[in-house]
Amino acid sequence: MAVKSQSPLVITVIVGLLALGVGLVIGYLLRPFKEPPAPHTSADQLWGIEAADDDKIAALDMLKDCSHLARENAVISKHLLENDVEACRAVTCDIPYPRTYVIYKLRGNDVIDLDGRLEDKAWKDVAWSDSFIDIQGREFPEPRLKTKVKMRYDYRFLYIGALLEEPDVWSNVTLHDGPVYQDNSFQILFDSRQSNVNYKEITINARGIVADLMMTKPYVDSGEPLQFWESDLVSEVYVHGSLNNPNSEDEYWTIEMAVPFSTLYQGSGASMNRSTPIHDETWRANFLRAQWSVKKRGTHYEKEKNSGTDWWGLIQFQDAEINSTHFMTSEKWVATNALLDTYSALQAFHAVTGRYTDRKELLHLPPYVFSGKCVDDISIKLDWSGFHVTVKPKGGNLEDGHIKADHFLWFGKEDMQYF
Ligand SMILES: *[C@@H]1O[C@H](CO)[C@@H](O)[C@H](O)[C@H]1NC(C)=O
Ligand SMILES: *[C@@H]1O[C@H](CO)[C@@H](O)[C@H](O)[C@H]1NC(C)=O
Ligand SMILES: *[C@@H]1O[C@H](CO)[C@@H](O)[C@H](O)[C@H]1NC(C)=O
């Protein structure tokens, strides 16, 4: 009897596992790689997936002082059994930040002489970023060759300085907008509005050849790379050693770039009419290094064998005394996460049922989204394009946030266009 009544369950579980398997395979095939990954290549990035352990420790610390609060709240307390960390977060609204870097504005008569060397006082005055980590995550071994960056800005340009340790500096691509990522290269990604649309990718090799493009959307959302976008940057590379000479041991190469804000803001929201960042403005960014294994063959280097990221850190512009400030947090961060989490829940619902829904209770939303403590209100409207989610941030001095089924996220008027 017991066996009989369990068999539909067993079949459901098997079908479920098979569906999960197929889902994993499809997910694997659709993952955001530009190029099929081949052996003997490595890629490092500044900001990557954090080790799960850090998260767990932070979560346990948080639990110590908030579970009584969660218990007092009727809407949230029923989530305590299911997921105490999420229930707690619904009261504390403590949504973890990714890694960050504060960019200080140039002061007085500070100048950056674009010669590829990072010797200007303006560079010496500011801290390096962390060293890059393996693109597969923090639990993978630290890259053998260090990479780190610094940034400054003035009213027209974002300045980026990078240092890449490298015993064998080589570079083959010589054409602007050519396949620069097929060389050992340094890449920057900027999403100036944290909007997921029209973010910028600039890649440079040791010859100083640049490929710049605008991604209409992330690769996972079948975004397209628009090669015609031009960053109009000024850049210079310095090689400490000798380029394309396997008979000499090199030490490093450094890069200096000045990228105009006017091009970095392009296409990220029509009414976003700005050509210079305001104090505390925060962008999503990441920095990557593609590294190919090469063999030394006589007078040239030969390649034995790149990848993309959908991981972002945050950079913040500050017009303040160097080192006198920290990264400033904002209610916008919680609202942005509430939008992204609702987006994911709607897409997950769609994957199972083939449709979207405007009924929040049917979605697997983390409780901070609807606890009323972290955002004032969140609403879902269904429309011809799929859905339109609107969030009212806490505090009342921020504009409403929105996200649509195509992943476009913005704060401001309901009918914003990104071109
Ligand atoms: C700011 O901090 C960095 C890193 O600690 C240090 O190297 C730099 O000298 C400091 N700058 C100033 C102006 O104090
Ligand atoms: C955008 O900026 C230009 C030039 O500064 C100005 O003329 C125009 O009115 C602005 N548009 C909006 C929508 O703010
Ligand atoms: C660079 O190009 C040369 C000439 O085509 C080729 O022989 C060499 O293998 C290339 N180097 C790498 C590392 O791909």
From TrEMBL:
<keyword id="KW-1133">Transmembrane helix</keyword>
<keyword id="KW-0472">Membrane</keyword>
<feature type="transmembrane region" description="Helical">
    <location>
        <begin position="9"/>
        <end position="30"/>
    </location>
</feature>
<protein>
    <recommendedName>
        <fullName>Carbohydrate-binding domain-containing protein</fullName>
    </recommendedName>
</protein>
<keyword id="KW-0812">Transmembrane</keyword>
